[in-house]
Amino acid sequence: MKNMTPFVNASGNVYNTGRTIVPSKAIATAATTHFMNPKVIIAALQKESSLVSAAPGIVSYSSRRFYYAMGYGATDSGDINGTSGFDVQIDKGTKLFKDLWAQAPVTQPAMFSGINYNKTVTSNGVTYKNYIWTKNWGTWALYKYTPHALDINLLPTIGGGNYLFYQIFKGYWGTDWT
Fold first, then answer.
1. Bridge partners for 74 per DSSP
2. Residue 157 backbone zone (phi > 0: left; psi -120 to 50: alpha; other: beta)
3. What Cα–Cα distance (Å) separates residue 117 from each residue in 13, 136, 149?
4. Residues 37, 31: Cα–Cα separation, whole Å
5. Cβ(27)–Cβ(21) under 8 Å?
6. How many other CB atoms sit within 10 Å of the CB of residue 144?
7. What is the per-residue pLDDT across 64-83, written as a single tens digit (0 to 9) for each?
8. Which one has a higher pLDDT value, 57 or 42?
9. pLDDT over 60 at 6, yes or no
10. Which of 29, 102, 124, 153 is the most buried (most CB within 10 A)?
11. DSSP letters of 12-30?
């Protein structure tokens, strides 16, 4: 499948760059360049934009789902200029995962604080704290990339953030993290 890659300029206007990219090649290149398991890239792509499971032609190339496909630069406080474009998202999002992995505390497990909008919430008698203990550098990187264990606004339904990443990964590949 070949796709045209849209870009958002500083004024927030979407335009087509005129470049044709092959998503599988963009994923393979980013995985090789940044030494990342392509399964992580695919699961993150699905978590952020649902593009992996979208039927061909259903999502407009001018859709936000394409130009912020991995959520890179699309922060809770607003979008960062210069981070849009499907190929940019794949490359920079993967590089960020790798950089965050390298920044993880050497000693694991490690406490990661400030998740869930830095709120401790109780729903149906269950308390969801604003911290989590990570077992490894990969989990640390995932929480740095998306610091939400779950979407507290959806409670009592569990979903969002890294919970969604885990469900997607497990649904595609089971528990084979290799």
1. 79
2. beta
3. 29, 22, 10
4. 6
5. no
6. 17
7. 888 889 999 888 788 888 88
8. 42
9. no
10. 29
11. S-EEEEEEEE-HHHHHHHH
Give the separation between CA 90 and CA 33, rounded to whole angstroms: 11
Q: How far apart are CA 121 and CA 38, in angstroms?
A: 34
Q: How is residue 35 written in tokens?
A: 């030494």
Residue 3, classed as helix, strand or coil, is strand
Between 93 and 157, the higher pLDDT residue: 93
Phi-psi region of 10 (alpha: psi -120 to 50; beta: other; left: phi over 0): alpha
Q: Are 61 and 4 in contact (CB under 8 A)?
A: yes
Instruction: State how far the Cα of 163 lies from the Cα of 98, in Å rounded to an integer.
Output: 20
Residue 133 · residue 101 · CB < 8 Å: no
**Separation of alpha carbons 151 and 162, rounded Å:** 9
CB 61 within 8 A of CB 20: no
CB-side neighbour CA atoms (13 Å) of 59 = 21
Of 33, 26, 32, the C-alpha closest to 69 is 26
* N residues, the chain: 178
Provide the greatest CA pair distance for the chain.
53
Cis amide prior to 156 (ω within 30 degrees): yes
Which pTM does this prediction carry? 0.84
